[in-house]
Design a protein that fits this description.
By secondary structure, the chain is mainly alpha-helical. The protein folds into two domains: 29-77; 79-128, no CATH class. Helix content is 69%, strand content 0%. The chain is built from six helices and no strands. The chain has helices at residues 11-18, 33-65, 73-76, 81-98, 100-113, 117-127. The longest helix has 33 residues, at 33-65.
Length: 128
């Protein structure tokens, strides 16, 4: 690996560091391993979102300082119809990616039980 103080890390070096197994036993907060994975993924997403928000804030401040934007331009922005449709499509695609594992589980249950989603929902409601 390169000396971090003098050189930028390559993408492969960053991936290697990010995927390095931590030493020692990983703390476990939940008895169910799936709960543990969900918690870990949630914390990772929270950290990624915090970084993204900080970067967005930085970009907005730089754009205001350089006179490209005025204070409040971002908050006051109203997307046109095309931008609104593109954002909505991006949100649908993002949601599909986020919930894909759950969708696969539902599909597997449907194949196993040969029940429609409506029938499964009815059975779940009866068990409540």
């Amino acid at each position: 690996m390169t000396d971090q103080s003098n050189e930028k890390l390559s993408p492969s070096e960053i991936a290697q560091i990010a995927n390095t197994k931590a030493q020692g036993k990983r703390p476990q907060y939940f008895a169910d391993p799936m709960d543990e994975h969900s918690f870990s993924m949630s914390m990772t997403l929270m950290a990624e979102l915090a970084v993204a928000r900080e970067r967005i804030d930085t970009l907005e401040r730089i754009l205001v300082q350089k006179g490209v934007l005025q204070e409040g331009d971002v908050e006051g922005y109203v997307p046109d119809a095309q931008a609104g449709e593109e954002r909505q499509q991006a949100q649908v695609e993002y949601s599909a990616r986020m919930f894909r594992s759950l969708q696969q589980q539902v599909e597997a249950m449907a194949e196993k039980n040969s029940l429609s989603m409506h029938e499964m929902a009815q059975r779940l409601a009866q068990n409540e």
